[in-house]
Design goal:
The complex is a heterodimer of chains A (about 325) and B (about 150). Chain A is α/β, with parallel strands linked by helices and about 325 residues long. Chain A is about 30% helix and about 20% strand. Classes of the chains: A alpha/beta (about 325), B alpha+beta (about 150). β7 of chain A pairs antiparallel with β4 of chain B, so a sheet runs across the interface.
Chain lengths: ~325, ~150
């Protein structure tokens, strides 16, 4: 994979001597992973069933419903496929039945930081394809209400199909510009803003994002994300939690966005940490500009630390 | 934007009577009716939101459609209803055909809508017509594999 010079320079600025390990990891294939859909089957029953079919599974340390498939098709990247090649993870009877959802292990992180409970009113502002929506419904035992929004009709269609397969009852799907949710002031107990982003962190599974990568795109997304985070904060009930996440490691899409929220509001930034997950602190300075010191509470999740994609998570509370 | 409305108690009772007649059991819960007589299962919490104002595109889980000749459960509806009558059990090889969207042959005397099962798994709904089970698996749910594999491999 050919990485652009500017990408390499920036990564070295962020990671120092650890950058080489980062560059090495993003060249390696990611194992298939999935999350057991506890709305339809219990974890033990599905795991036993898949193991009986010959799947080698490893539990994702931070998510009890999450598993990597060590001998899945993804692990065979670059090898010749033949009669003994395992079926694609999305082409099995268990997937057809909705017993599991194909989900990258890193993407299981944001819902776990939301401290979800049954009966809450939750907004998933940029929900499609719905992996985190379904996960949140599972954590809430499908009791409460999740409004899953996306702005594009094609993405809403995908969201509908996926949520149907998962079998989520506590769901409303909307197609709106997420900025409009600022009009529902103080309504939501929890908000997930898994913001549209450049995808800088998913180079490992989508090498094409390395080809498309450029700094103006990061800045363009940063501008959109700043609008979205301010709208989300408006819609959040006082005393409640919001998680801001991206699959990008670019400070323009991460700390700089959260920095604006801290600067303009009374938001409290709680430590974004969960058991079993190695995280690195958010940065407080980027390319000569100082930012709020509280940004250390954000989590930078690098591929080499947990064998995932790259992710960024911030956990925000609105004071009462 | 799609239109959904909360079903009245009377409508839900009528639907549940139909379910009972066809499958010997019912689905309980808060139900909504959308376009083309589709029925959705939601939660009480959904009622706290003004649906018209929100322009909802989807609601809860689609459990089936009220047809002229009865209630036709979706895959999730079939799983939720836990049918005790009009159930046809198919083998592993037939299951692989079923989830790819093919119709399958049957010797069953049953007529009309049937719930299709493979061991403990509920695969969806079919309709028995002239010795065949018509497959209602929606296109977007069908397995897109050309390989003929046994289901347990």
């Amino acid at each position: 994979m050919e990485l652009k010079e500017e990408f390499i320079t920036r990564s070295r600025e962020l990671l120092g001597s650890d950058a080489d390990s980062y560059f090495k990891t993003i060249e390696e294939p990611l194992n298939d992973s999935f999350r057991v859909n506890t709305l339809k089957i219990n974890i033990e029953a599905l795991v036993n069933r898949l193991k009986n079919k010959g799947w080698e599974l490893r539990n994702v340390p931070w998510c009890k419903e999450g598993y990597w498939v060590l001998n899945g098709r993804a692990a065979l990247r670059g090898k010749v496929l033949g009669a003994e090649t395992p079926e694609r993870i999305g082409n099995t009877l268990e997937h057809f039945l909705g017993y599991y959802y194909v989900q990258e292990a890193g993407s299981m992180i944001p819902p776990l930081m939301l401290e979800l409970k049954e009966g809450q009113k939750v907004l998933d502002m940029a929900a499609s394809p719905g992996s985190k929506t379904g996960q949140m419904a599972g954590i809430m035992n499908d009791e409460g209400l999740i409004i899953a929004n996306d702005v594009r009709i094609d993405r809403v269609s995908i969201l509908k199909v996926n949520m149907q397969r998962i079998g989520v009852r506590s769901l409303l799907i909307t197609r709106r510009n997420a900025m409009n949710y600022q009009n529902m002031k103080g309504v939501f107990d929890r908000i997930l803003l898994d913001a549209p982003c450049s995808g800088e962190g998913v180079i490992r599974s989508n090498p094409y994002s390395a080809v498309e990568w450029n700094v103006p795109t990061l800045r363009k997304f940063g501008k959109v994300q700043k609008g979205l985070i301010m709208s989300a904060y408006e819609a959040l009930k006082p005393g409640s939690l919001m998680v801001y996440s991206t699959c990008s490691l670019a400070p323009e899409e991460d700390e700089e966005v959260v920095n604006l929220l801290l600067d303009k509001t009374d938001a409290i930034l709680e430590p974004a940490r969960i058991n079993g997950l190695k995280t690195r602190d958010g940065i407080t300075e980027w390319q000569g500009n100082s930012m709020d010191k509280r940004l250390k509470n954000c989590a930078r999740i690098y591929p080499q630390d947990n064998d995932t994609e790259g992710f960024f998570v911030a956990k925000v509370r609105k004071p009462i | 934007m799609m239109n959904f409305r909360h079903m009245t108690k009377k409508e839900v009772n009528e639907l549940q009577e139909q379910m009972k007649k066809q499958f010997g059991s019912v689905i309980e819960g808060t139900m909504f009716r959308g376009s083309k007589d589709k029925v959705y299962l939601g939660t009480e919490h959904i009622l706290t939101i003004n649906l018209d104002k929100l322009n909802a595109e989807g609601i809860g889980v689609y459990i089936g459609r009220i047809e002229e000749d009865g209630f036709r459960p979706s895959i999730e509806g079939a799983q939720l209803i836990r049918a005790v009558i009009n159930v046809i059990e198919i083998n592993d090889e037939e299951t692989w055909d079923w989830i790819r969207g093919f119709e399958i042959k049957t010797n069953s005397e049953t007529r009309g809508y049937v719930i299709i099962k493979n061991k403990e798994d509920t695969l969806g709904t079919g309709k028995v017509i002239n010795g065949k089970i018509w497959n209602y698996t929606p296109k977007e749910r069908r397995i897109k594999s050309l390989t003929k594999k046994l289901i347990n491999q």
